[in-house]
Amino acid sequence: MTLGLLGTKKGMTQIFDEEGLVFPVTVVELGPCTVVQKKTVKTDGYNAIQLGFASQKAQRVTKALKGHFEKKGLKNYSRTLKESRVSDPEQFEVGQQITVQAFRTGDVVDVQGVTKGRGFQGVIKKEGKHGGPDGHGSGFHRRPGSIGMRTWPGRVMKNMGMPGRMGHDQVLMRHLTVVGIKPEENLLLLRGAVPGTRNGLVVVFNRAKDFETRYKKPE
Predict the structure, then answer these.
(1) Neighbouring C-alpha atoms within 13 Å toward the C-beta of 75
(2) Which letter does DSSP use for residue 110 in this model?
(3) Which one of 29, 69, 145, 170 is CB 3.0 to 4.6 Å from 74, fit for a cystine?
(4) Where in 122-219 does DSSP place strands (E)?
(5) How many Cα atoms occupy the beta-carbon half-sphere of 127 within 13 Å?
(6) Angstrom distances, CA of residue 107 to CA of 18, 71, 100
(7) 134-174: per-residue pLDDT in tens?
């Protein structure tokens, strides 16, 4: 997995392509992300950088996190921190701002998010089962039905669809295409759907082989 940038899902819209065909688009406000920490094989056993996203008031930051930021010489506190593996952390600088400008129209990305939580649901909504008949004296409507046989196997088989909590799962959507970029608003337009609620946190991984090299250490 390549460098992943943090952002928020702002919603969906639709746009037209050059042939006049309409297709769905998800708008993601991506970054700016701040490089908070660098990790190397020599000091930590692997190469990675820690990114911070969205500012946080000082009174809402714990003493431990304040010390973490102040040790790196950073005065602005981030609300969300996430570590991302990179091949060469030395090409980044602590305090460097990583924005949406390194993306290109046509790039293929993977987007990770948390789906909407649906709470406790029955098997019809959660598992897509049909249930029983609605009429003719039937008292079997939205119940799961038989979940096993008699003496054999004498237990409920694994992965049997049952009522339970639905949603709020981490999902990775692969191979979404970047169809537009608005650097002045930090917006990224992705063709297709992205998991999560509006203003929900997402992580965008660019699959371009030269993506990490697009971010040059400030001179």
Answers:
(1) 0
(2) E
(3) 69
(4) 164-167, 170-182, 187-191, 201-206
(5) 15
(6) 18, 36, 12
(7) 888 888 889 888 888 888 888 999 999 999 999 999 999 99
Q: How high is the pLDDT of residue 115?
A: 96
| pLDDT tens digits, one per residue of 13-34 | 999 988 899 999 999 999 899 9
Asked whether the CA dihedral 63, 67, 68, 74 is positive or negative, the reply is positive
**Tokens 């337009």 map to which residue?**
189
205 three-state secondary structure: strand
> Residue 165 contacts by C-beta under 8 Å, 6 or more apart in sequence?
117, 118, 119, 120, 121
All domains in the chain, ordered by first residue: 4-120+166-214 (2.40.30.10), 121-165 (no CATH)
Do 50 and 68 form a contact (C-beta atoms < 8 A)? Answer: no
- The pTM score is 0.84
